[in-house]
Amino acid sequence: MNRITKILLYTLIVMQTNFFSLQPSWEFGRLLNSYTSKYLSLIIVISIIIINLSSITKNILKRRVTFFIPIAFLLISNLCIEFWSSISYQQSFFSSFTASYYYYLIILYYYLVTLITDKSETLRMFTFIITLSGIYSFLLILQDLLLNKEIEFMNIGDTGLGVEVGNNLLGFLRIKAPSDFIAFGTMVIIVYMLIDSKKTKQNLIPLTINTVYLVVVSQTRMYIITILILEIFMVLYKVNKINKVFTVVFMYIVGFFGIAMIPKIFSTFINGERKTSYTVRIEAINFYFNEISLRKIVGIGFPNTFSTEYLLHGGMLNILGYQYYLDDIGILGFIVTFGVVGYIILGIFIIQLIREFMRTPNKLVSLVPISYILLTSISLSLVNVQRIIYLPFILFIISFIRNEGDKHGKERNNNYYSNL
How confident is the model at residue 106 (pLDDT cuts 50, 70, 90)? Predict the structure, then answer.
């Protein structure tokens, strides 16, 4: 990785924390880079690709790139639907682009998988992500505690973190916007701890801080469930190497309590304070799928005019003050946008995930990023504007785990034959 590319890539990662939400409110800056705006991120990604285009092209032609086909198909489909939306909704191509530009962020995968091939360089990037997530979690927890004393040092307004005053857990107000980066960072910690057991102790601190943030500050149910499942899996993986009998007993205990807790966990999604949220999501699914029944091939595409406001956010619940958002229905929002094309893209991605899992020698470690994708997609789509930047990194991690497993396999074979 050359110096310029390294600066750009690491700056891109820091930007996903919005510089730890310490910068003051600045409208133009918020439009360039924020939780729901990734224009500056796209500029950096395109810059990285252009700088390394020759090397990326050579490597793609020379070696197998696992997710090359589904990503290429997504990018081509996105471009075609942008043109279709411009014609169908009588809007400019620029309007269609501003409603869909973030899908192009996934092209970063081509750089990551073709040019970051050194294990030490990859682990340094992991360490950087882990450090950022730990610092950010600590600052968020501290800010939340200080809010009770009316002390503010982070940008917590509507243009920043957007603290939800009405939601309170153990005295903490809800700050959910940074949860995407923190959850992603936590998944990276778990992968790192499984890959390199020597780093387990030093990674326990950011893992603990991140988990505290996700549970009591972000209060994002799907991330809480996903990360707790992955952490239990990590414990089982570690313990199994020491005592297999204890692992079996622990699995039975966790399984028993897990089954017993399923009804209670499910009830938190449909009852209590979150009942309205659940109802709105169900109504949104019904509304959007009724709309795409009229546009089966390409879904609703990218409407981006005042006259298409109803198509994006309409429904009877508007009368009660609620609007529908594609972000709220998980991966189904992607299907609503792309229609039948979306089913094809997801099908190809799933097939590639299965093939990669079957081919990797280290299947248990590979389960971590794959499970993260599948579990979060239930209600938090990784192809939404606020999360798609993490998808190329996660796909890269899956490829990295497989490549490392292949290398170890070759080393074991070489050692075996050299001893004959």
Answer: very high
